[in-house]
């Protein structure tokens, strides 16, 4: 991905222009419904910024690894939470449905670029991938970074240019396949790695705990190297509803708050505990 200017540098009105926005709406879906819409919500500031400038928007995202999943649940949920008129937003098909995406095919990238006048990347979580909708489209259109991407880069730059210790990394989410590399990486870089959400469910199950009907990734991963790492911190209590873990408990929040207080750097990649922690400080 090339260095991109912020969309805040766009001064002119975008009426009559179509903006391709690469987002990451690869969200967990159960029984045809989105069960965690955090990624969708974080893209709304960028989308609303562009709409206020008069642009029409084509959203590009993937869902799942192989592109076979339908975007219908995501699209339906998006319009419910955003309250944006459907006439102003178009969803492209699941981008990984097309072989040219992962191959970073130039011809495919040009076809994508032909649909719009401007390209915006607001998908920080996939910006490390050399895929057509991430890397190559920006070669053929005026290109900008979305507000979320800009904020993520700014915060990470602050963290890694002058890393302070003790360093706490907090991670949550549902898809273990995408987060396992982060867990391994930060177990090397940080002093503490707290894992919550469905990721914690997976690790707790691997340790032999009964997680009932809780959401958990059913794939098998090699996690032997991290299960007994002394830097790894898992929740110790939970709120449970209908046999499923829905949140971490008060004891876990209290323990995490104590670690935060003695840490000089905290990097957060989850939403689950934010509101609870805010009440602690």
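-> sequence recovered:
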């Amino acid at each position: 991905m090339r260095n991109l200017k912020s969309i805040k540098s766009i001064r002119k009105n975008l009426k009559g222009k179509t903006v391709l926005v690469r987002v990451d709406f690869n969200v967990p879906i159960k029984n045809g419904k989105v069960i965690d819409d955090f990624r969708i919500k974080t893209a709304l500031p960028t989308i609303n910024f562009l709409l206020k400038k008069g642009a029409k928007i084509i959203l590009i995202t993937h869902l799942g690894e192989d592109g076979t999943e339908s975007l219908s649940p995501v699209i339906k949920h998006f319009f419910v939470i955003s309250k944006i008129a459907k006439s102003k937003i178009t969803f492209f098909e699941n981008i990984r449905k097309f072989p040219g995406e992962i191959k970073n095919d130039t011809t495919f990238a040009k076809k994508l670029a032909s649909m719009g006048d401007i390209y915006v990347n607001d998908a920080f979580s996939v910006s490390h991938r050399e895929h057509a909708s991430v890397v190559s489209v920006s070669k053929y259109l005026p290109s900008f970074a979305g507000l979320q991407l800009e904020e993520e880069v700014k915060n990470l730059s602050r963290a890694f240019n002058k890393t302070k210790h003790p360093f706490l990394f907090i991670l949550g989410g549902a898809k273990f396949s995408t987060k396992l590399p982060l867990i391994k990486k930060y177990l090397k870089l940080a002093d503490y790695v707290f894992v919550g959400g469905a990721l914690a469910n997976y690790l707790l199950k691997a340790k032999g705990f009964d997680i009932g009907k809780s959401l958990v990734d059913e794939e098998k991963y090699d996690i032997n190297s991290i299960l007994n790492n002394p830097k790894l911190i898992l929740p110790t209590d939970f709120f449970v509803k209908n046999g499923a873990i829905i949140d971490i408990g008060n004891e876990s929040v209290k323990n995490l708050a104590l670690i935060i207080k003695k840490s000089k750097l905290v990097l957060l990649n989850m939403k689950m505990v934010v509101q609870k922690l805010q009440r602690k400080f």
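The chain has a mean pLDDT of 90.
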